[in-house]
Structure formats: C-alpha cells, structure tokens
Design a protein that fits this description.
The protein is an alpha/beta fold. It has 10 helices and 12 strands. The structure holds iron/sulfur cluster. Iron/sulfur cluster (SF4) binds next to loops.
C-alpha cells in the first residue's frame, strides 16, 4: 500500500497540508556551453500529509532534502514535479504573484535568527512587516498586535524600539516567532529553529512553541537533524534519507519500534537518561552518497547493515505497518 490515504481519517482528523509525489531536481551545468549534464535529486518522490493541529517532525542528515521539502511546501521553491495541497487547494502551480494570501496562512521560522532578521529594521518594524505586506489592520491595531506578540513570546514591549543585534540568540528566535505569528497563520514551518541555540535555550524555545501551538491553534512542520529535539515536540515523525522518505510513524511508535535500519541507527545515537534502557549504538559505515548520483535500488543500501541483493536492484515502496506507521524497506515486503 502506498501513502495515498483518504483526506479524512476515520477518527475525523483533518488534513491541512499534503504533498504527493513531490520532486525537486536542481540541474547540474557543465562544459563550455553550460548544458545540463545531470541533476541533484534533492527531493525525490515524497508523499506525506499533515493533520490540522499536529506537529510533524522531519528528520534527516544534512543533504537529506528536508529543508528543500519545507521550502517547496511554502512555495519558496517551485517543485519540479508533484502536487502540494493546502486546505484542499492545489498550490503547487499558483504563480508567485498569487502567493501573498498563502503567506498569511503559512509562515516560516529559520535556523539562524540573526541572518533572518533585517539588522537595519527595529524589532517593531520586523514584526509589523508581514502585517503591512498583507495589508492587515490599521496602524494602531498593528502596533497593539506587535506589543501583544512581544509579550506573548516573553519579551518586554520596549523591545520594539531596539535592533536585532541587541538580543541574544534565544531572544532573536523569539522575535522570529513573533514575526511568524503576526499574520495569525495556520501552519508554521520551522527549518531547524533551535539548532543554532544552546541546549538550555533550546528547551525554552521548544516549550514556548508548544504553548503557542495551543493558544494559536497552530500546525507545525518541524525540521531538524536531531532526533532528540524532534522527540520533544512532535506527534508524528518522518525520517528522510537522500531525498526520500524512509519511515513515517507516530512519535511513540517510532521511538519504541523503529523499523527502518536507518531509523534504528539514528535512534541508537539518541542519548537516554533511562539506566534500564540498554541501547547498542549502531555505527553506520560510509558517508551519505551524493544526491547527484544516488545508489540504485534502495538509496540506503550502501550503508545498510541489512542490505541484500534485492536492495541494490529494486526501490522499496512505502508500506503500511500499523496505524499511521509506514516504512520503505524490503525487509517488510514480499519479493
Ligand atoms: Fe536496508 Fe534493503 Fe531495507 Fe534498504 S531495503 S533499508 S538496503 S534492508
């Protein structure tokens, strides 16, 4: 069974975002004439859905395609192929000139809160800017909104007169979150939003994001390379490897019963505080292959301790293994 499921689940969870067979190939130019000599397959045939109000964590190594996937969902990048549906509307091919209403409903938080905040704008201007672009409210209403958002993310209202360099990394990420919230979005895509922060600050920002999710009824797509960060905040987790999905499952199921050998290796590396839990670290051999020249068959076969002949020949399809638990691995399919 593939990942094409009905839009409404029996338990009435409502899908807000779906991608179907999504691909992003970047051309590689070569020779004097700069002809296309190949493609980097950053995202290669990914299908998944996100339910309203949930947090879907997307995990993978650098180069796995997770950020490219997030940027395509925001339509910051055009897909090469495939479909993106937001609230039942196909947004994969809408022109950039028609994208403004979409930006109101979908906002992004970036990894580096300093690089993503304009250093020449005051914090008040930064938070107000998306409302100005969306032509939301009067000047007075926008100012009131700036103040209330600053307070809601744990900053004082005087912060609106200051500039980004006057704040710590954690405070700058709070400003980024306030800006993302200013248009009252339905979905927030966080592209490694806590990766650049100290561990102690990470948990503060994660707790804030969880509180805000309840208050603002947000849906999160949370991109990270660290499974321990995703564990904290996600309802379900999708594991990506070399532009493809390896496994998607509810968080507890994934951590208790990882099926894909790659997920098993990632989880074996997550530190545990449970002294009864004995975990043997699985060390993967070799580096991530180039997405410009991915291995045949299963993209993980060059590093997989369970690889067998079929894995080099045939690409595994996503197979349903339980309630919302899917895996792409020949160990779970019949030849
Ligand atoms: Fe390993 Fe084969 Fe499964 Fe790929 S399909 S993860 S190579 S066992």
């Amino acid at each position: 069974m593939t990942m094409s499921q009905p839009v409404k689940e029996p338990n009435e969870k409502k899908e807000i975002l779906r991608v179907q067979n999504l691909k992003k190939y970047f051309p590689i130019k070569g020779g004097v004439l700069k002809r296309t000599v190949g493609h980097v397959k950053a995202v290669d045939d990914v299908s998944l859905h996100i339910f309203e109000g949930e947090t879907l964590g997307i995990v993978g190594e650098s180069g796995s395609g997770k950020s490219t996937l997030g940027r395509m969902m925001m339509r910051l990048l055009d897909p090469t192929e495939g479909q993106i549906t937001f609230n039942g509307v196909d947004i994969s091919t809408i022109r950039q000139s028609k994208i403004r209403p979409l930006r109101k409903d979908m906002q992004m938080i970036f990894q580096d809160p300093y690089a993503s905040l304009n250093p020449r704008m005051s914090v008040g201007e930064i938070i107000e800017e998306p409302m100005l672009i969306q032509k939301t409210g009067s000047s007075k209403e926008r100012q009131e909104n700036v103040i209330s958002l600053l307070e809601r993310v744990g900053l004082q209202q005087e912060a609106r007169y200051k500039y980004p360099h006057e704040f710590s990394g954690g405070q700058r990420q709070r400003i980024g979150i306030a800006r993302a919230l200013s248009t009252r979005p339905k979905v927030i895509i966080g592209d490694e939003p806590v990766s650049a922060l100290d561990v102690s600050v990470q948990s503060q920002v994660l707790n804030l994001m969880e509180d805000l999710q309840n208050d603002f009824q947000l849906t999160y797509l949370f991109i990270a390379h660290d499974l321990s960060v995703v564990k904290h905040i996600s309802d379900r987790v999708a594991v990506m490897y070399l532009g493809r999905l390896a496994e998607v499952a509810p968080k507890d199921d994934l951590y208790a019963n990882p099926l894909h050998p790659y997920t098993q290796a990632l989880i074996s590396a997550v530190p545990t505080t449970d002294i009864d839990e004995k975990r043997e670290r699985i060390i993967l051999q070799g580096d991530l292959p180039s997405p410009a020249n991915p291995p045949s068959g299963c993209p993980f076969h060059t590093r997989c301790p369970e690889a067998h002949e079929r894995c080099t020949l045939e690409r595994p399809e996503m197979t349903k293994m339980g309630e919302e638990h899917y895996v792409a691995c020949h160990l779970y399919t019949q030849s």
